[in-house]
Amino acid sequence: MTLSLLLAVLGAAAGYFGALVGVGGGLLLIPGLVLLFRLDMPTAVATSLVGVIASSTAAGSAYVGKGLANMRLGMTLEISTTVGALTGALLGTRLNGEVLAGVFAVLVFVTAGALLRPGRGEHEAAVKGAHEDARGKGWEDSGSLGGGYVEPRTGETVRYRASRIPLGSAIALTAGVLSGLLGVGGGALKVPAMNLGMRIPMRVAAATSNFMVGVTAVSSLLVYFARGHVHPAIAAPTGLGVVVGALLGARMSGRFRPSVLRRVLAVALLLVGVEMTAHALGVHLGT
Amino acid sequence: MLGGLILRAAERETGTPDAPLFHLVRAGDLGSSTMAMGVLGLALTPILRVVALALIWLKERDWRFVAVAAFVLMMLGISILLGKG
Question: What is the pLDDT of residues B16-37, one digit of tens each?
């Protein structure tokens, strides 16, 4: 029972900080599972994927209720994302744990660098706005990858149509590979792919990504299931902790200055990156 | 998942049953198998979402997206088959 509690606390911390700053909890969860609980990478990745599905299920319904998530667009991108996730998962169950830890460390350093760059305000505002606005209900155009919504701040109707679909699909494929290989949700790639690549409004991109990330995670989780890497005694408390932490973090995100949160998390991720690099090289730094 | 954890605590099950999921569902104690069923149920949720979307689009006669949803479901099926391989 102590172990379950500790796993739940780790999951809650990862979900909480992830929701506060708008990055996936997997970036904190996987190093915690590997470095603190001494799990092998495939088990840690599988556990993280359970957490991704749990938080996507918990939070995604809110987006759907507001009609901001474009299901046709999300499902179209899932064609390439599921292929990528399957590929990543097959690789992840075959690659050496140290190699995976090294790849994960690269992702962590890149994310830390991105957090320290200015200009994430729009993304955070859109994610928060997509989740909390009582107005702003959206719709999809039947038979196309377009739609619209009412912008709650101005009352203006915003119509959009997806463009450069091959580019969006290529980035979604990469996001799927990362998800399957490293147990992250992939939203950090999918949202910019839709917003910058396919010219989808940020609110719709964030809502669609949040809704679909669970489908991406399950396509790779099924591989880990089949290979016996999903351990319910580890996945269940961790997943529950992630949900609680993410919901709490989303609620409290307005109380902290985003720039401060980003810098704190960036520093934490840099330390995590160093630890994971050491793990990849077989050097133990005392954890 | 929560129910399984509570049952395990009530049964004073200690340690971490490191048996993988399907073994626990079939042969674990009540708490462990409940927990395992919870994890399985959670994993089914996104799959059920895709099925629900396929049915909605079928009703709307939006055949292109019915095919898209069917492809995604096929990929999910392939995931299990390739995973076992």
Answer: 555 566 666 555 677 777 888 8
- In the DSSP assignment, the letter for residue A117 is S
Q: Is A89 on the interface with B (CB under 8 A)?
A: yes
CB-CB contact of B5 with A236 (8 Å): yes
| Distance from the A114 Cα atom to the nearest Cα atom in chain B, whole angstroms | 29
Q: Confirm whether pTM is higher than 0.95.
A: no
Q: Which value, in Å, is the radius of gyration of the alpha carbons in chain A?
A: 18
Q: How many domains does chain A have?
A: 1
Report d(CA A117, CA A126) in Å as an integer: 18
Q: Do residues A52 and A24 touch, judged by C-beta distance below 8 A?
A: yes
Structural domain includes residue A287: no
Give B-chain residues touching A236 at CB under 8 angstroms.
1-2, 4-5, 35, 38-39
Distances (CA, A) of A134 to A63, A130, A153, A200: 11, 9, 11, 21
Q: How confident is the model at residue A258 (pLDDT cuts 50, 70, 90)?
A: low
A192 in any annotated domain: yes
ipTM: 0.80
Full residue range of the structural domain in which residue A86 is found: 2-281
Give the structural domain span for B10.
2-84
Q: Which residues of B touch A77 (CB under 8 A)?
A: none
Question: Any CB–CB contact under 8 A between A78 and chain B?
Answer: yes
